[in-house]
Design a protein that fits this description.
Blueprint: H1 2-13, H2 24-30, H3 34-63, H4 78-100, H5 102-108, H6 119-134, H7 140-168, H8 180-194
Helix pairs in contact: 1-7, 3-4, 3-6, 3-7, 4-5, 4-6, 6-7
Amino acid sequence: METLNLFIRSIFIDNMVFAFFFGMCSYIAVSKSVKTALGLGAAVTFVMLMTVPLNYLINQYVLAPNALADGVDLSFLSFIVFIAVIAAFTQLVEMVVERFSPTLYNQLGIFLPLIAVNCAIMGGCLFMQQKVEAGAITSFGQSVVYGLGSGLGWWLAIVMMAAIRERTTYSKIPAALKGPGIAFIITGLMGMAFMIFSGIKL
């Protein structure tokens, strides 16, 4: 039951976009069409699903105090190690997308390699570390669930945003708000809507 609660919280209550506004650069830039948003969302979810559990193992068995030996604390290397793992998987995703879907690769452009510096993924790894210390994540399986849920939450957010922005092309929007302006307003309203989930007790 705790694992299910963790999964639901990571998607809706602790949504990386609407609760913490992480990953906003690629979220705003790539959410102009649903097709592109689906592709980037899948890529981010895959990278998060792979990196959060892997960083959990590294954190538990290498970086944590007394993990390697008594008196040895390598936790100060967390940022560097987490970023290295994320960058490695991002490179893998970029090569796979380029090989099997050149059209999507061209549509995503520079934002595909920018997954490596997507703060939503780094945030997921750092929040995982905090949840381990707080006792909310106690096993490798729960870290997998948290990584998957966080990725799906970001995917849900960008696809919803893309669907709304596609509709706004037929709306009369003031010239000063067209593009990123209306996107930020919509994101703020969606964030307020998602605050409803914060009242749910799990």
